[in-house]
Design goal:
By secondary structure, this protein is of the alpha+beta class. Helix content is 23%, strand content 20%. The protein has helices spanning 7-21, 39-47, 133-137, 161-176, 193-198, 205-221, and strands spanning 56-61, 66-72, 78-85, 88-89, 107-112, 116-117, 125-127, 146-148, 157-158, 181-187, 227-230, 233-236, 239-240, 257-258.
Length: 292
């Protein structure tokens, strides 16, 4: 099981690297979690009008075996940075239910800084935070559900060591820039109408319909939606009537709210298609990230 590292250990490692690097001919390789973002990746960020300290957003698609990284630019909305191939996830399409079912989770998760693990046995990792409030309200159990390296999985999402280093470094710099937590939305597939129709007989369809609301909200606005949980269901961008609740109980009745109309006017073109066309298809395959 992965164990989260501490901020102090990161600081000590960085200080040691600086001390040794200043000793003339002495040389030390930085630990994986301290390595700087590559020149090539920095160049791509610049070409896309992005800075390392700007907020990060991640989407995961099981069926397509893809992990997308988005960066918020100065216009306040998120823009696609790169799509990374997931070389392995486990189980089938559908949410994780119980500890040991070797099923990779689906849902809306949040990764604060302490869930970044520089000491992972899988090179580097970050904990998705499963079970979240929705999962707990349905009695779902499981621990240490990660995105990590090593290209092997027993309930996690595995990418190559090189790509997990890049994603980890992008997250690290976003935290240094002031981001409090990184939203990670995990979907069974790209939630287009045609894909939903293809899975119309799947017993998970009611759950996936809630996930689709979150998918659609981001596709139309390129802003990460607010996710709330009450009455054992997800609410997407609820507008509370009266005073906003300080805290929701995931199992109790929702306060009175309105949901926004997700009109097509002013929406942004979907990422489905050319933007991720050169990523390898299907689960458990390897490839190179899509830059466009």
């Amino acid at each position: 099981m992965d164990q989260c590292g501490t901020r102090s250990s990161i600081a000590c490692s960085a200080a040691l690297a600086l001390m040794v690097s200043g000793c003339g001919s002495a040389r030390i390789d930085l630990a994986a979690h301290l390595r700087p973002i590559s020149v090539e990746t920095m160049s791509l960020l610049g070409k896309k009008g992005m800075r390392t300290e700007q907020p990060l957003f991640i989407r995961v698609f099981k069926e397509e075996s893809e992990l997308e990284v988005w960066k918020q630019r100065d216009d306040g909305v998120f823009h696609h940075f790169r799509t990374y191939p997931i070389c392995m996830w486990s189980g089938e399409l559908g949410p994780k239910i119980t500890e040991g079912d070797k099923q990779s989770p689906e849902g809306f998760y949040s990764v604060p800084r302490h869930q970044m693990n520089p000491n992972s046995q899988f090179h580097l990792s970050f904990n998705l935070g499963f079970p979240n409030a929705y999962d707990r309200s349905h009695g779902r159990t499981g621990t240490a559900l990660m995105v990590h390296g090593k290209c092997k999985s027993a309930g996690c999402y595995a990418i190559t060591d090189a790509w997990v280093e890049e994603v980890y470094a992008l997250g690290r710099e976003a935290f240094i820039g002031g981001q409090h937590s990184i939203d990670v939305h995990v979907f069974p597939f790209r939630m287009t109408e045609s894909h939903m129709a293809r899975h119309s007989t799947n017993p998970n369809l009611p759950f996936w319909a809630m996930l689709k609301d979150g998918y659609d909200a981001f596709e139309m606005s390129r802003r990460v939606p607010t996710i709330a949980v009450c009455e054992r269901r997800y609410l997407i961008n609820p507008a509370w009537r009266g005073t906003a609740p300080a805290k929701l109980d995931a199992e109790k009745q929702c306060p009175t709210y309105d949901l926004p109309q997700m009109a097509a006017a002013g929406s942004v073109t979907s990422t489905t298609g050319a933007e991720v066309a050169n990523v390898v298809e299907g689960p458990k395959k390897r490839g190179v990230p899509a830059d466009h």
